[in-house]
Specification:
Elements: H1 6-9, H2 17-29, H3 63-75, E1 82-85, H4 92-104, E2 112-116, E3 126-130, H5 134-157, H6 160-190, E4 193-198, E5 201-208, E6 211-212, H7 215-220, H8 223-280, H9 285-300, H10 302-306, H11 312-318, E7 323-324, E8 336-339, E9 349-351, H12 357-361, E10 363-364, E11 367-369, E12 372-375, E13 380-381, H13 384-388, E14 392-396, H14 397-402, H15 406-416, E15 418-419, H16 424-427, E16 441-442, E17 446-451, H17 453-462, H18 466-469, E18 472-475, E19 479-481, H19 484-500, H20 508-522, E20 527-529, H21 532-548, H22 556-570, H23 572-582, E21 593-595, E22 597-606, E23 609-623, E24 628-630, H24 631-634, H25 640-656, E25 665-671, H26 684-696, E26 699-701, E27 704-706, E28 709-710, E29 716-717, H27 722-736, E30 743-747, H28 758-765, E31 770-774, H29 777-785, H30 803-821
Parallel strand pairs: 1-17, 1-18, 7-12, 9-14, 14-17, 22-27, 24-25, 27-30, 30-31
Antiparallel strand pairs: 2-3, 2-8, 4-5, 5-6, 10-13, 11-12, 15-16, 19-20, 21-26, 22-23, 23-25, 28-29
């Protein structure tokens, strides 16, 4: 028997009741041109051009995110840091920055943070916290002190007073041993001895009649006299030795006296300099305490400041060559201003675009001197957390997570509320060289992370510390309601972007066209996109084309030119795919009828460009044990969501037909000419039509393409990228020539998502192309076959001549054949989960996602 389509049945005799019923069905299901696109009345735009509008100061379409950000900023409690989540380009950063700067302006300016030399333990530099702006002032004053210090001390030590007093000390200690020896010498002379100085030392000898007694003469003396003289010599020599042993002590006393003199002179020389500094920083106890230690150190080391005893290379070698080196005498009096808030208005708001470990928590740099690396407190550098201390720090989570150990460092700082500057090797205990351990900084900062929703949910799941530290989630919408008030606010948003970007004025027609394109980007007649990047790009490009045309204002034609240019720049692959289809390389029929074959609508995404690609879906059926083979899944080209959609078909068949008999078929489904992965369940409706057609032996119209997800009850569910899918099939049909019988079948629930191109709508108006919306599988069957689907009568049977009757009759026939052959039953567990779109991303790909052939 030959079955014709419903469009062909229109031309049958008026008396044919079935034909009239099918024409009525088509009229009920086909969408009118007015339903294919939402058009905005120009009167809704409350201005003639965007020049008539004051710049919008509020954020449009992000009420929930605004409230979350304001809450996170205002609560000021531990752990209430903010995570701004949403798609890139929705204006997360701009909104957060707006509220952070607004709130920060009302807060006090945080202090300056400085590192200074620790005179007690140079390895641990001291932290000096001073009011904002004081750090730079103190740094400058100490620089001037360092410049003056050597000259002042040199002048003091070269003064006549100092030289005279020092000469007195030197002379005193120089004469002391000589005087002691002279006294011994005088007493020895009185005792009949004389002091003899030789190259090897001093000795005493007896004297007779003014001459030194010779050895022979001494031997001739009586024993008693010799013993007396020897005793005298021994006692005087012992006294000389005692005197000589006191010389080092006298030398120490001399140096101590000189040191005391140096300190006295140094105190007099620098005292007025330090006193001037004390008067300038009166009331700052920390600074005054530091100045006291500086003065004490200058006084103690005045002589080394004037004339260093040790050259730097030797000092470096004594410090170990690598790691910490003692600062030069004058360098240690300098101030390392770690954070300078003198120009800060309110609390700081810092955005760190390169959040490495060092850039977050700071670092200690090293310099190469004489072939060795060294460091000191002047080489400590601040991180973003230091600069944002007392305010807010904005980071992008994807950049943060890509940098090794930066995420752990941030959590550690937030948890401990302390900022410790340590090298990565030191933090991981990978190095043991001596280095600096700066005093930690107390941390008071609110961190705002921004990133995609997936990263937020993954961190919630895998990192137990995440929710303790980031308690506020600011979820940004990528769409907003297109209510009257929402549309008016959106027109003001357009005007604000135009003014902020210094673009030409947009007239009413341009604003209306932008509104329509915004709804198109949102894929919803009731929504407008809040993807600010795409909106701003469109406005800039429309301004470009207005400039190219030398027009004073941007019109709707310029906006349309910008849209067309965006598509043209990205559609090379689409053009090649469509060319291969029209040439027959990729087989897609747009006329005739075929059993077990249907045109499914899929969508391909190449970056931000999405286009529809018709795909031929075929089904083959034979006697079997009830198995339904998804060829894509068997060869591992089908994703889990696509496989789920195919398995749902088993549940539908088993419940709808021959409920008292086992399924006795072996069926296979495949996307023809699919060369890569297939994912999504938006082709499950088309797959079901192909399968039913193959079972019933009833041909399906190839001039109609199908998209939609189906559940086990035969209800057709919505899919994503509906506009691109419709336009994809339309472009193929238009390239081959529209015949008036071509069209697409979509889910009824997708009707409000339609924002089709003008050429598609015009073809529908002229009845050259048709768009039908269905809610059930039966409605689609009637459109594709021209037969009534049929409902069970009181006896539970489908009427003769209906499509469902053909399906059930074939399944019963297969069941009887199976019984004759004794084929065992294949147990199939029905799939109970029923998805709306399948892939969960709002863009159903109709089993799409398959890339173009290799040559494309």
């Amino acid at each position: 028997m030959v079955l014709t389509s419903e469009w062909a049945l229109e031309n049958r005799e008026p008396g044919n009741a079935m034909a009239h019923e099918l024409v009525k069905t088509r009229g009920k299901l086909e969408l009118e041109p007015e339903a294919l696109r939402r058009r905005y009345d120009p009167s809704i735009v409350p201005f003639d051009t965007t020049d008539d509008v004051t710049e919008l100061t509020e954020i449009v379409g992000q009420g929930r995110a605004e409230a979350s950000v304001q809450f996170g900023i205002g609560i000021a409690r531990d752990g209430y840091n903010i995570f701004a989540l949403g798609p890139p380009g929705t204006g997360k950063r701009s909104l957060v920055w707006h509220y952070l700067t607004k709130h920060a302006a009302s807060k006090g300016v945080p202090p300056d943070f400085c590192y200074v030399h620790n005179f007690d333990n140079p390895q641990r530099p001291r932290l000096l916290v001073v009011p904002a702006g004081t750090g730079t002032t103190l740094h400058g004053e100490m620089e001037r002190l360092v410049e003056e210090l050597r000259n002042v001390l040199t002048s003091a030590f070269e003064s006549e007073e100092y030289q005279m007093r020092r000469k007195v000390i030197e002379d005193e200690f120089k004469e002391r041993p000589q005087q002691a020896l002279q006294d011994i010498e005088h007493r020895a002379t009185d005792a009949g001895l004389t002091l003899i100085r030789t190259p090897v030392g001093m000795a005493f000898a007896p004297v007779q009649e003014g001459e030194v007694m010779s050895g022979g003469e001494f031997d001739k003396l009586p024993d008693a006299e010799r013993k007396r003289i020897e005793s005298l010599v021994e006692s005087f020599e012992e006294e000389v030795h005692r005197t000589l042993r006191q010389v080092p002590r006298w030398d120490r006393e001399r140096r101590e006296r000189v040191r005391e003199l140096d300190q006295e002179i140094a105190k007099l020389a620098v005292g007025h300099l330090i006193d001037e500094l004390r008067s300038k920083f009166a009331g700052l106890d920390a600074v005054l305490e530091y100045l006291d230690t500086v003065q004490d150190d200058i006084i103690r080391n005045a002589r080394s400041i004037v004339s260093p005893d040790q050259p730097f290379p030797a000092a470096l070698l004594e410090a170990g060559g690598l790691g910490r080196a003692e600062p030069q005498p004058l360098s240690r009096y300098k101030i390392n201003v770690l954070v300078d808030n003198r120009d800060t208005k309110g609390a700081p708001v810092i955005a760190e675009d390169h959040p490495t470990y060092d850039n977050l928590i700071g670092r200690t740099e090293h310099v190469s001197r004489f072939g060795a690396l060294s460091t000191d407190f002047t080489l400590i550098r601040a991180g973003a957390l230091h600069r944002a201390n007392g305010g807010f720090l904005l980071l992008e989570i994807n950049k943060l997570l890509r940098t090794p150990y930066a995420w752990d460092a941030l959590k550690r700082a937030l948890r401990s509320k302390k900022l410790r500057i340590e090298s990565l090797g030191q933090a991981l205990s990978l190095v043991s060289t001596v280095t600096l351990e700066p005093e930690p900084v107390d941390l008071d900062v609110t961190v705002v992370l921004s990133g995609e929703r997936l990263l937020y949910y993954l961190l919630c799941y895998y990192d137990p510390e995440f929710e303790e530290l980031f308690k506020v989630a600011a979820d940004f919408n990528d769409v907003m309601d297109a209510s009257d008030s929402g549309v008016r606010a959106y027109t003001q948003l357009i005007a604000s972007v135009v003014q902020r970007e210094n673009l030409r004025a947009f007239d009413r027609s341009a604003v209306v066209r932008v509104l329509e394109q915004s709804a198109r980007m949102a894929s919803d007649q009731r929504k407008l996109t809040t993807h600010m990047r795409s909106l701003s790009d469109l406005l800039r490009e429309a301004d470009f084309w207005a400039a190219r045309a030398r027009d004073a204002a941007v019109t709707g034609a310029h906006v349309q030119r910008a849209i067309d240019a965006q598509v043209e720049r990205a559609d090379r692959v689409r053009e090649r795919v469509y060319e291969e289809i029209t040439r027959g390389t990729i087989k897609i029929d747009t006329d005739g009828a075929t059993v077990g074959q249907v045109n499914g609508l899929s969508a391909l995404a190449l970056g931000n460009f999405i286009f529809g690609r018709p795909s031929r879906i075929t089904a083959r059926v034979r006697l079997g044990g009830g198995e339904l083979v998804d060829i894509e899944r068997e060869v591992k080209l089908g994703g889990p969501v696509h496989s789920k959609g195919v398995l749902i078909l088993s549940g539908y068949l088993g419940a709808r037909y021959v409920p008292d008999h086992p399924l006795s078929l072996s069926a296979s489904l495949v996307f023809e000419q699919s060369y890569s992965g297939v994912e999504g369940d938006s082709a499950s409706c088309a797959e079901l039509f192909a399968l039913l057609s193959a079972i019933a032996g009833v041909p399906l119209r190839q001039s109609m393409a199908v998209t939609g997800s189906v559940n086990q009850h035969g209800e057709v569910q919505p899919v994503g990228a509906i506009n691109e899918k419709i336009e994809g099939f339309f472009d193929i049909c238009a390239a081959r020539g529209l015949t008036g019988t071509q069209g697409v079948i979509i889910p009824r629930s997708n009707s409000e998502h339609l924002m089709l191109r003008e050429d598609v709508i015009e073809a529908v108006k002229q009845h050259r192309f048709h768009i039908a919306a269905i809610e059930t599988v039966d409605e689609g069957i009637e459109l594709l076959t021209g037969l009534p689907a049929g409902e069970r009568d009181e006896q539970g049977k489908y009427p003769d001549g209906t499509f469902n009757h053909f399906v059930e009759a074939r399944l019963l026939e297969l069941a009887l054949q199976r019984k004759e052959f004794g084929i065992p039953t294949l147990e199939v567990t029905p799939v109970l989960l029923e998805g709306k779109d399948g892939d969960g991303d709002g863009v159903g790909d109709g089993g799409g996602g398959q890339p173009t052939p290799p040559e494309a």
